[in-house]
Amino acid sequence: MPTSSGRVPFAEIYEVAQNELIRAKSTDTAAENKFKGAVNEVYMEDLMLMFHEDYLRKEGTITTIADYSTGNAYTVSGTTLTGASTLWTSANSNNMLLKVTGYNEVYRVTYVSATSLTLDRSWAETAFSATNTAYRLVQDRYALASDFNHMCQDDIDYPEAAYYWRSGAKAFLKPKADAGEYDMNWSHTYGAPGEYAVKYVTGSPYIYLYPPDTDSRTIIYNYIPALVPMVEYTTGYISAITNGATGVTGAGSDWDGNVDTASYTYFFRVDADGVGSASQWYQVSSASADTTITLSSNYLGTSISSGASTDKYTISRISLWPAKFDHLIAYLAALRVDPDNTDAKKWSDFALGKTTGLKGRDGRAVLGQHGAFKRGRR
Question: Could you give the C-alpha distances from 185 to 158, 176, 181, 189, 192, in angstroms and in order?
Answer without folding.
Answer: 20, 10, 6, 11, 16
